[in-house]
Design a protein that fits this description.
Shape: globular
Radius of gyration: 24 Å
CATH superfamily: SecY subunit domain
Strand order of the largest sheet: 2-1-3
Order of helices and strands: HHHHHHHHHHHHEEHHHHEHH
Structural class: mainly alpha
Oligomer: single chain
Length: 435
């Protein structure tokens, strides 16, 4: 293993990309500790006590604790993800945006620019909601979270949080372009992983005091290992469609060779749970910060242990599994390419019949992938909540951490193999998430 790590740093470009990525993630973590002006951090910390396992705890874990500390990165990267969702939906239902998506590099740049503008708009809206919510929040003894209230604090908070999200967005784009892996996913990854040391220390302390039994802790650890193994297995699972290519001999077709079309069981990767979480978090986060009785009632229902939350969450995951697969994989284009190359699916006529066959198989495996993602994201959370585990590290977090780790490792693997070095994992080929 040491020799493989040495190989990684012997490639100048790969070494530069990895160090750049680590540097950008370090900058992100520093920003997660820069406080927003005008907020009493000690009173806010009291407000956030006991939010583990709630929606606020989940939001805070995605931001690496920045929301809990109300730092300049308190909004995290979720406004950017929400803007991306809106633009992708418009790509399907709005013809001008659909045309842009088919214009190649120039169209992609325009959509990216619109996504950035949308991120700023959403950040302003969410920042305003948080600013008004902070002014109404009080500590256990009635202390104000914001001692000096007024329009000045609201404007300063909106500007600060919006600038923080814009900077995170820039960091993610820089990592994607000049680093290794997907920058936005790695930022979420870093936020989740950053909470692990404190969670482990807290669990050890509770074990020593007897608040958490060793038997329950063993069950949780075993459950996490099983879920991680299941995620790795499903992320590498494929449905291979046989493709036969006929060989031309003197103008006639004879013999040929057989290949396959690999279709990932989970073609959409970690996008569905991230998108679903961002959709639920936006209204629920604002609701948690608004001191109105009926709003608080709705907010109390939107917790990961509540049946309403889980029904909405699963429905959103299934929707985004199908939606993202439809956006990234077009059976018509695939069938046309197979036909142009002289190939066909055995027993299926070329043309529309092949399109229908691929579409049917894709719908079936997408349904299986959606059920798998929903089970991983929901079941561990419900089981962990029954044991009153003192930290939130449920299935959604595990799926994102393992999925992003596999993606990044596959990119490192590709760099090593392209330069005739031994792979990152001996005897194991790490497949990417997208077919």
């Amino acid at each position: 293993m040491l020799a493989i790590v040495q190989n990684i740093f012997q490639i100048p470009e790969l070494r530069r990309r990895i160090l750049f990525t680590l540097g950008m993630l370090a900058v992100y973590r520093v920003g997660c500790h820069v406080p927003t002006p005008g907020v009493d951090a000690s009173v806010l910390a009291e407000f956030f006590k006991g939010t583990e396992g709630t929606l606020l705890g989940l939001v805070s874990s995605f931001t690496g604790g920045a929301l809990e500390r109300m730092t300049v990165f308190a909004l995290g990267i979720m406004p950017y993800i929400s803007a991306s969702i809106i633009l992708q939906l418009l790509t399907v239902v709005f013809e001008p945006v659909q045309r842009l998506s088919k214009e190649g590099e120039q169209g992609r740049k325009t959509i990216t620019k619109w996504t950035r503008y949308g991120t700023i708009v959403l950040s302003v809206v969410q920042g305003a909601g948080i600013a008004f919510g902070l002014q109404s929040m009080r500590g256990p003894a009635g202390e104000l979270v914001v001692p000096n209230q007024g329009m000045g604090f609201i404007l300063l908070t909106i500007i600060t949080l919006t600038a923080g999200t814009a900077f995170i967005m820039w960091l993610g784009e820089q990592i994607t372009e000049r680093g290794i892996g997907n920058g936005i996913s790695l930022i979420i990854f870093a936020g989740i992983v950053a909470n692990m040391p404190s969670a482990i220390v807290n669990s050890i302390r509770l074990l020593k005091t007897g608040a958490l039994s060793i038997f329950v802790m063993i069950i949780i650890v075993v459950l996490m290992v099983i879920v991680i193994a299941f995620i790795i297995f499903m992320e590498r699972a494929q449905r291979r469609l046989p493709i036969h290519y006929a060989k031309r001999v003197a103008g006639a077709r004879s013999g040929g060779q057989t290949s396959h079309l690999p279709l990932k069981i989970n073609m959409s990767g970690v996008i569905p749970p991230i998108f679903a979480s961002s959709i639920i978090m936006f209204p629920a986060t604002v609701a948690n910060l608004v001191d109105v009785p009926w709003v608080q009632t709705i907010a109390s229902m939107m917790t990961p242990t509540n049946i309403l939350y889980n029904v909405i969450y699963v429905a959103a995951i299934v929707f985004f599994c199908y939606f993202y697969t439809a956006v990234t994989f077009n059976p018509i284009d695939v069938a046309d390419n197979i036909k142009k190359q002289g190939g066909y699916v055995p027993g299926i006529r070329p043309g529309k019949a092949t399109v229908d066959y691929i579409d049917t198989v894709l719908n079936r495996i997408t349904f299986a992938g959606a059920i798998y993602i929903s089970a991983v994201c929901v079941l561990p959370t419900l089981m962990i909540s029954q044991f009153n585990v003192p930290f939130f590290f449920g299935g959604t977090s595990l799926l994102i951490v393992v999925g992003v780790g596999l993606d990044t490792a596959s990119q490192i693997e590709a760099h090593l193999i392209s330069r005739s070095y031994e792979g990152f994992m001996q005897g194991v080929s790490i497949k990417g998430r997208r077919g």
